[in-house]
Amino acid sequence: MKNLATMLKPLAMSVALLAIFTAAQSLAHAVPVTFSTAGCFGTGCTPSATFITVGSGTASVNFTSQAPTTVETNTPSGFTVADLGTFTVAGSGTFAATPFTLVIQQTQPTTGTGTFTATLTGTLITNGSDARIVFDQTSIFIGDVRYDLANLTFGNTLFLDPNATGGITRITALVSSPVPEPATMILLGTGLAGVAAAARKRRKAA
């Protein structure tokens, strides 16, 4: 009976280590992210929910912010696609180079802000447009959470389409958070196994 108990101890320890390893991986991947956005046009502007800028003629563009949103990053790809707000264009005319500021306010897993800056230029006409917002950077970090602008052309340009539904152009981002590398998890398991082995040796010596 004693031999059976001795044989089962390593098995029980292995099962316990596997459970800890699995739980650690689940906790690492399940990271909810909550954020909202605000934006504005102009030098030194104050980001808000809605801000309209008017170009020459009747051309106008309106930014509508993203209300507080929670997304999960525990997807097979390790990221999720999230909306950051919408631009609505109308009329016809030309936009002189106008700065645009987009601020992301994150409340979990950590509280903080991140800012994208860009420039609005181009012309709106009845049957088309080359109006665009060109971003100075396309990714930011808030704590360990990364936001990568997703629906851009030429790597950094969002074209504003007056022919889209209601003249609305959406801006989206890939939201991701880091997970432990496999090597880190293996090291954790190896360390726990070492502690268990040391404990068994102490019991035998006693």
Distance between the termini: 20 Å
* Radius of gyration from CA coordinates: 26 Å
Query: Structural class of the secondary elements?
Result: alpha+beta
* Count of helical stretches: 2
Beta-strand content: over 45%
State the shape.
elongated
Largest sheet, if any?
A: 7 strands, antiparallel
How helical, in percent, are the residues? 25-40%
Query: Which residues form runs of ≥5 with pLDDT under 50?
Result: 10-29, 180-193
Secondary-structure element sequence?
HEEEEEEEEEEEEEH
Considering the chains and any ligands shown, give keywords for the structure:
seven-stranded antiparallel beta sheet; six-stranded antiparallel beta sheet; 2 helices; alpha+beta; 25% helix
Task: Explain what the structure shows.
With 206 residues, the protein is α+β, with helices and mostly antiparallel strands. 25% of the residues lie in helices and 46% in strands. It contains two helices and 13 strands. The protein has helices at residues 2-29, 182-205; strands at 32-41, 50-54, 60-65, 69-72, 79-90, 93-108, 112-125, 128-129, 132-135, 139-142, 145-149, 157-159, 168-176. Strands 1, 4, 6, 7, 8, 9 and 12 form a seven-stranded antiparallel β-sheet that branches. A six-stranded antiparallel β-sheet has the order 2-3-5-13-11-10, with no helix packed on it. A hairpin with a 5-residue loop joins strand 2 (50-54) and strand 3 (60-65). Helix 1 packs antiparallel against helix 2. It is elongated, with a radius of gyration of 26 Å. The chain starts with a helix and ends with a helix. Mean pLDDT is 82; it is low at 10-29 and 180-193.
